[in-house]
Amino acid sequence: MAEFDIIELEGQRRVRMRIADESVRAEAGAMSHMSGQVEIFTPPPSPGAVMASLLSDEPMIRPRYHGTGEVLLEASFGGYHVFDVDGEPWVLERGAYWASDGRVKLGVHREPFSASFWAGDGLVNFQTKVSGRGRVVLNAPGPVEEVRLDNSRIAVEGKLVIARTLGLTYTVKRPTRSLLGYYLSREAMVRSFSGTGRVLICVTPFWSERLFKAVETRPRW
């Protein structure tokens, strides 16, 4: 099985993928360098991938790396999160996909029309869907928390949920019951996820975390 490591050097993080006669995928243009007997393959995109790319920011092609060796992806001041897909499909927020095991299948998921409209994502919103079995790496701006729902609901403001299991119901609604309460609360529309499944939430970016620590530890004169 391919190995995925998050390594850090001078404040920057990067993903290292180690393969032994197997394949991995990565976001188009994400490679920094590779070593060993590794070749890059770019299979033609499916019609669904072409349509999704035309209507969103998702790329048509995500290259495959096959062979034995190491592949290092570009560094970032943000962070990455590795999780396992174990048969249940996941929906990833735009720009969240970074790399995955070659056994993981990549597809396209279209969000409900009403949810896309009220969330400000346009009339049609396509997301990346991952399924099968294997590891997936997310490009996350900060630490990631997993929340499990058991026939329950969670509501978040903005695009804090960077991944969710496909079985959850996704809607966008007011955070209050009444329209007056909505205006008085000064809260934005919230994204609601309900049912039984898992969501990955990214709240605090790494750069904010470092800034807060720097403020806390600076000398007090």
Description:
By secondary structure, this protein is of the alpha+beta class. It has a single domain (3-217), classed as Double-stranded beta-helix (4-Layer Sandwich), CATH 3.60.160. Helix content is 15%, strand content 52%. It contains four helices and 14 strands. Strands 1, 2, 3, 4, 5, 7 and 10 form a seven-stranded antiparallel sheet that branches. Strands 6, 8, 9, 11, 12, 13 and 14 form a seven-stranded antiparallel sheet that branches. β1 and β2 form a beta hairpin. The chain is globular, with a radius of gyration of 19 Å. Mean pLDDT is 81; it is low at 208-221.
What are the key terms here?
disordered C terminus, 221 residues, seven-stranded antiparallel sheet, alpha+beta, Double-stranded beta-helix
Gyration radius (Cα, Å) is: 19 Å
> Which residues form runs of ≥5 with pLDDT under 50?
208-221
* Helix content percent band: 10-25%
Q: Which structural class best describes the helix and strand composition?
A: alpha+beta
CATH class: Alpha Beta
How much is the average pLDDT? 81
How far the N terminus sits from the C terminus, by CA atoms, comes to 54 Å
